[in-house]
Amino acid sequence: MIASFVFYGWTYPPYVVLLGATIGVTFAFGRMISQTRSKIVTAFAIALNLALLGWFKYAGFLADMIFAVSGVHAGLPAILLPLGISFFTFQQIAYLVDIYQGKTRSGSLLNYVFLISFFPQLIAGPIVHHSELIPQLGGNRFARFRPEDIAAGVILFSIGLAKKVLLADNLAVYADRLFLAQSMAVETSMIEAWLGMLCYTFQIYFDFSGYSDMALGLGLVFGLTLPVNFWSPYKATNIIDFWKRWNMTLSTFLRDYLYFPLGGNRSGPVRRYANLWIVMLLGGLWHGAGWQFVFWGALHGFYLTVAHLWFRHSRLRVPVLISTILTFIGVVFAWVFFRAENFAQAGAIVRAMTAQTAPGIWELAIYETADLGIALLAVSVALVWFMPNALQITERLKTATVSTRSSMAFAGVLGSLSAVCLFKVYVSGSNAFIYFQF
């Protein structure tokens, strides 16, 4: 636990106090809820956590809206967003609700501190529930450092590291150039826009799923099984399937703690789709304080509504290959708004992607290194659609019967891959994980 707090406070030590305080206060409320089952206490504790998140993440956004409407400047100081606040806030809300509903018990303070602060999942998930992690602390695997757990953990961590350093960071070069070109009012062609957006689409997948693989791998080293957060999302055959595979713990949280309490699909189709839109709008806002994130959520709400209506009323079944490609294209278009700094930038890229602009000349010299970008995209396509995911690879290696020689060869390959990643980070650094900003 001490290592987790040191890890959290490495970049900005004062926020260690914030993390410790919010853990202590939430645990105290959890004890009160456990004893009283008070709806008022539960609501207040949840509101307190949301207020903290709102101040650090949305106060500036709200001040900008007030200024845009009234011309009144709120004069707020610059607020540094605490790392992982969106994730640990949702974890603590889930803990409070689960205690109120009798799904879990408050337990000990040390266990709760461990639940929230465990460093592999603290910054960017997965969102771990009390009932998923705490029972494992008393099991026969925790902190026993079993060879099979360490081996599986190292494999997962190494794959995640390679995803981040070798793929995501290199794809980011081409994705960033597209958005930089638009911010400089440089007109881009349809091919350039699609190249840039495909690079970002694979970048965010390798970046976020790479972090999740590393988190799960570190958990296994300690003998803990963290919940899976990704399961080959770009293989999804429809947008409903996509959200069952992408950021799975967030999807589960939004379903269990927002969609179902709103009524879910129990109150007729109109209420059902209204609830769906509310969930996706708030899910978009959870990612970032900006209207483009809200629109990203709204767009996915629209996709989901169309998909549900299609499956409900249409007898036509689209072939798997076509439905997978259509789903992927829809996701790519939505990522434009997720990545864009504003609607003007997003609109310019969408116009370029739909051939509504002149051919244009990319003035950022991307074609000097275009071969590498295209090669990265080819590798990304092969890995995403034609290869097993990191968890499947790890599971197959765990159950496979292999010779000592082949085991040593695989260990050599894995070690070399990790060494290349670490050398690249040492020489040229590495981009921050995308989801660290949330």
Write the layout of secondary structure elements.
Elements: H1 2-9, H2 14-36, H3 39-70, H4 85-100, H5 109-117, H6 119-122, H7 130-137, H8 147-183, H9 190-221, H10 239-243, H11 248-259, H12 269-287, H13 291-313, H14 320-339, H15 343-353, H16 370-386, H17 390-399, H18 404-428
Helix pairs in contact: 2-3, 2-4, 2-5, 3-4, 8-9, 8-16, 8-17, 8-18, 9-14, 9-15, 9-16, 11-12, 12-13, 13-14, 14-15
Question: Briefly, what is this?
Answer:
With 438 residues, this protein is an all-alpha fold. It folds into two domains: 2-137, no CATH class; 147-429, no CATH class.
Based on the model shown, name its key terms.
438 residues, mainly alpha, 18 helices, 71% helix, globular, MBOAT_fam, Probable alginate O-acetylase AlgI, acyltransferase, transmembrane
Explain this structure.
37% of the residues are buried. By secondary structure, this protein is mainly alpha-helical. The chain folds into two domains: 2-137, no CATH class; 147-429, no CATH class. It has 18 helices and no strands. It has helices at residues 2-9, 14-36, 39-70, 85-100, 109-117, 119-122, 130-137, 147-183, 190-221, 239-243, 248-259, 269-287, 291-313, 320-339, 343-353, 370-386, 390-399, 404-428.
Shape estimate: globular
* Rg, alpha carbons: 23 Å
Give the class from helix and strand content and strand pairing: mainly alpha
pLDDT average, as an integer? 88
Instruction: Name the beta content range.
Output: under 5%
Largest sheet: none
How many strands in all?
A: 0
**Run of helices and strands:** HHHHHHHHHHHHHHHHHH
> How many structural domains can be distinguished in the coordinates?
2
Count of alpha and pi helical runs: 18
Percent range of helical residues? over 70%
Distance between termini?
A: 23 Å
List the uncertain runs. Answer: 361-367
Protein name: Probable alginate O-acetylase AlgI
Subcellular location: Cell membrane
Family: Belongs to the membrane-bound acyltransferase family.
Keywords: Acyltransferase, Alginate biosynthesis, Cell membrane, Membrane, Transferase, Transmembrane, Transmembrane helix
